[in-house]
UniProtKB/TrEMBL annotation:
Belongs to the thioesterase family. The lineage of its organism: Bacteria, Bacillati, Chloroflexota, Ktedonobacteria, Ktedonobacterales. It comes from Dictyobacter aurantiacus. Gene3D superfamilies: alpha/beta hydrolase. This is Thioesterase. It comes from the Bacteria. GO terms for biological process: lipid biosynthetic process. Residues 23-245 form the Thioesterase domain. InterPro entries: AB_hydrolase_fold, TEII, Thioesterase.
Amino acid sequence: MIDSTRANPWLPWPGTYPQAKLRLFCFPYAGGGASVFRSWSRELPSEVDLRPVQLPGRERRLREDPYTDLVPLVAAAREALLPYLDRPFAFFGHCLGALMAFELSRQLRSLHNIEPAILFVSGHRAPQLPDRFTPAHMLPDADFAAELRQRNGTREEVLQNPDVMRLVLPLLRADFAVCETYTYTPAAPLSCPIAAFSGADDPAVLPAELAGWSEMTSGTFAAQVFPGDHFFLQSARPQLLQRLTQDLTRTIQQLPDA
């Protein structure tokens, strides 16, 4: 049982529907925080308990140092979230969050013999494929900001605000380091279904790179390209949440005790 009286910095808000049949944990993109997912609860099925995940170094955890390596980040997240995986759960991750959700799923299978009921990966190429971009996290500030703009991976209003950039550059560097130093280790594919999403105008995820996620599961796989760029989860929000609702509803119906 979960002790709801204990504060967990990884989960900054109480569950939306504590008695729901399935928990949905959402992992943010590079530079992003848990708040980007908080309003999703109004548009997802009531059978889904939405749990946005807060990583160190942002929002309520601004005073903490962000991780620069995926391995300890995933290990820390696993320890923090494991007590909340006592019922069926699903993962959604965008960009950095997709990579994190995938590796967390593999670690949970390896160490605890559990997997998500469904894994949603968004805005990131399949992990076994090489990065087409030159590593950027060690570039000087001006060059790093130019690289962010070229990749269309950071919102323009952030790039245009010097005060905001001074605050977020260390976090963005750390998050980029997590992704750019990641090394895929071959392993047996997951057995859970995977749904992979991207934006039609996102230069970071080509169609073949999205389709490559199919190799990461022995279960069902589906891919969908939404209108928009890397931040289609905002610009195509209605379409994305409609798709999530359909997939989550189907997943809940297929649970053993549904």
